């Protein structure tokens, strides 16, 4: 059984990964899709403006990338702390 300081280090790293992922997703979905949409209106992608693309499609694609990135990073973190499968 790992000691308390190792557990704290593991969960601190886990929370850091989660917070960074949520911030990236918030920026892409709410920031680019809603708040910054007027600024992105002049940039065209796929026949529509970039802000609309982020609101409809981009945030979903970013979320999918974040899921795979989270899984890879957590597998690495699990191995580092000896809690991998």
UniProtKB/TrEMBL annotation:
The chain crosses the membrane at residues 17-40, 52-72. InterPro entries: Na_symporter_ssu. Keywords: Membrane, Transmembrane, Transmembrane helix. It comes from the Bacteria. Residues 8-84 form the Sodium symporter small subunit domain. NCBIfam families: Na_symport_sm. This is Solute:sodium symporter, small subunit domain-containing protein. The lineage of its organism: Bacteria, Pseudomonadati, Pseudomonadota, Alphaproteobacteria, Rhodobacterales.
